[in-house]
Design a protein that fits this description.
By secondary structure, the protein is an alpha+beta fold. Helices cover 16% and strands 35% of the residues. Strand 18 and strand 19 form a beta hairpin.
């Protein structure tokens, strides 16, 4: 018995004693209802704000676009040299200088033209074949001389070494190197210039006629031409472009999201920005042209102006009715734009969480939202929930 009791006590003493739980006096237990308070401030916002829901409807909105009156490029007339030679005298001093049909533009010296005149004089003084004489006249006409100038050479028996070139049309002249980028919007006013004269070439591009003064544009950028007297030009080289002053168009710049709802034939109303009541009229878009300029993507909507009362360089404002299919809409204050993404603040429990959304058209204080935000409760003023120096981390 004694031995059995000793064995029992030994076994009992060898059993492991239960460990006592360690109590860390520095450990803080956070209430689950307060966990949001310790989250980073750029992930969610704790606070009270006015909540709204997105509307889901079809809208007809009136979009506004800015534009400018410009020259119609379809009415341009090119002035070229039909023969190689040297510019003896240049009467055009600056771009957008107003010119009249038949006005003297420049005088050119061409050795081949002088040689052809000498040949004509020789044939007229000899008893040669009359057919050769007619061919000599035709050659001079092909080189750009008018019939009147040829008759003058035959009467005087002298070679005309300085052949004048006249304007083939009324309008505003632009140097070809500057016209390659299209006529720019003008910006300083000027008066019409005069001065036509002399026999000679009735324009290397066509004949003269009774000149009529072209009205000067309201605003024109008077940059000096780069051509200089004494400069050589080659045969067929285009030197100037003339834009007719009575054929204008209006160009309106549309953002890509608005351009998606506009096409050729879309009706719009437009007016001069400085005189809405007196110039208000309606028209249809004649051409749509996607354009990238200075790294910015936009669309040009052109309206061809048939009515008088507009001048190149005038600023216009257009009102364009746009039908947008059924979609979600939020006020602009509810959508925060951060670079290339748009963010709204969605209510989740007791906090507001930033969410990425895809947006479309923005106009009339409304933003089209292409994401599904049907059941979301959103902050009405998203900007009030963002610190100006923090970066929002959205889901």
């Amino acid at each position: 018995m004694t031995l059995l009791l000793i064995v029992t006590l030994f076994i009992t003493s060898c059993k492991s004693k239960p460990e006592k739980q360690h109590h860390d006096v520095g450990k803080i237990t956070v209430d689950s209802a307060l966990k949001a308070l310790v989250k980073p401030s750029n992930e969610l916002v704790v606070g009270k704000t006015t909540l709204i829901k997105a509307s889901h409807e079809t809208k007809i909105l009136m979009a506004e676009a800015q534009g400018i009156v410009n020259y119609d490029l379809r009415s341009e007339t090119s002035v070229a040299s039909r023969i190689a030679g040297r510019l003896e005298k240049l009467w055009i001093k600056y771009n957008y200088q107003p010119v009249r049909k038949g006005q003297l533009l420049f005088e050119i010296y061409a050795p081949d033209l002088a040689a052809a005149q000498q040949e004509l004089i020789y044939l007229s003084q000899s008893d040669g074949d009359q057919q050769l004489l007619e061919r000599a006249k035709q050659r001079l006409m092909l080189l750009g001389m008018s019939a009147q100038s040829i008759q003058g050479v035959l009467r005087s028996k002298k070679v005309n070494y300085r052949i004048p070139v006249y304007s083939p049309a009324d309008g505003f002249i632009l140097e070809k190197s500057a016209a390659s980028a299209g006529p720019a919007a003008p910006s300083s006013s000027m008066a019409a210039s005069g001065g036509s004269g002399g026999d000679g070439m009735s324009g290397m591009s066509g004949g003269g006629g009774s000149p009529s003064t072209a009205p000067a544009p309201a605003k024109v950028e008077s940059t000096a031409v780069l051509l200089r007297e004494g400069q050589y030009v080659s045969a067929g080289e285009a030197l100037f472009t003339i834009y007719k002053s009575n054929q204008l168009l209006a160009e309106f710049m549309l953002k890509p999201d608005l351009a998606a709802f506009v096409s050729k034939g879309t009706k719009l109303a437009f007016f001069k920005t400085v005189d809405r009541a007196g110039t208000f009229q309606t028209a249809a878009i004649g051409m749509i042209q996607p354009t990238i300029k200075a790294g910015e993507n936009f669309t040009l909507a052109r309206v061809y102006l048939n009515e008088q009362g507009f001048k190149a360089g005038e600023i216009l404002t257009a009102k364009i009715p746009v039908l947008i299919p059924r979609s979600y809409w939020l006020p602009e204050s509810a959508v925060l734009t951060m670079g290339n993404k748009s963010i709204v603040f969605k209510k989740e429990g007791a906090v507001m969480v930033a969410q990425d959304v895809q947006t479309g058209v923005r106009m009339n204080g409304l933003v089209q939202v292409k994401s599904n935000v049907a059941d979301w409760q959103l902050a009405k003023n998203a900007a009030y929930l963002v610190d100006s120096e923090s970066f929002v981390k959205s889901k």
